[in-house]
């Protein structure tokens, strides 16, 4: 499921890929409205599966960051993004990803991750496991 979720530049929120055509995609908003709309090839589209966070040693896929937050909270984040200070947001992120690269991961990135995480969890999307790793585990178990 996570691999079909995207962000579209200039449009707030997250979207789920419904279908694709020749020059466009049909996407559905991940919120209470589930509004569908076309997104064209000229729009900047980024799949969440393609996003990674810089650490001191490697790049960690966003799904792993979300899995770490979900493992810690089991729900939406316990603070309000608009009322929290930048120091509080960074401090919480350090508890989840203690070795993130402080020079390349900015506060705006952290806020965006928190916003996306809350959107996903509040809409029942909590499976942040990698489908390729799950398939490998199933093959190994047999």
Summarize the structure.
By secondary structure, the protein is of the alpha+beta class. Helices cover 35% and strands 21% of the residues.
Question: How does this model look, in words?
Answer:
This protein has 142 residues and is α+β, with helices and mostly antiparallel strands. The strands form two sheets. A five-stranded antiparallel beta sheet has the order 4-3-2-1-5, with no helix packed on it. A two-stranded antiparallel sheet has the order 6-7. The protein folds into two domains: 2-48, SH3 type barrels (Roll); 51-122, Arc Repressor Mutant, subunit A (Orthogonal Bundle), CATH 1.10.10. It is 35% helix and 21% strand. It has helices at 62-73, 86-96, 107-122, 131-141, and strands at residues 5-8, 15-20, 24-29, 36-40, 45-47, 52-54, 59-61.
Strands of the widest sheet, in order across it, are 4-3-2-1-5
Number of domains: 2
Following the backbone from N to C, one meets helices and strands in this order, namely: EEEEEEEHHHH
**Architecture (CATH level 2) name of the largest domain:** Orthogonal Bundle
Q: Beta-sheet strand percentage?
A: 15-25%
The rounded distance between the terminal residues' Cα atoms is 24 Å
The major β-sheet equals: 5 strands, antiparallel
Reading off the top of the CATH hierarchy, the class of the largest domain is best stated as Mainly Alpha
Uncertain segments of ≥5 residues (pLDDT<50)?
none
Find the structural class using helix and strand composition: alpha+beta
Shape: globular
CATH topology of the largest domain: Arc Repressor Mutant, subunit A
Mean pLDDT equals: 88
**Tally of extended strands?**
7
Rg for CA atoms = 16 Å
Q: Compute the number of helices.
A: 4
Helicity level: 25-40%
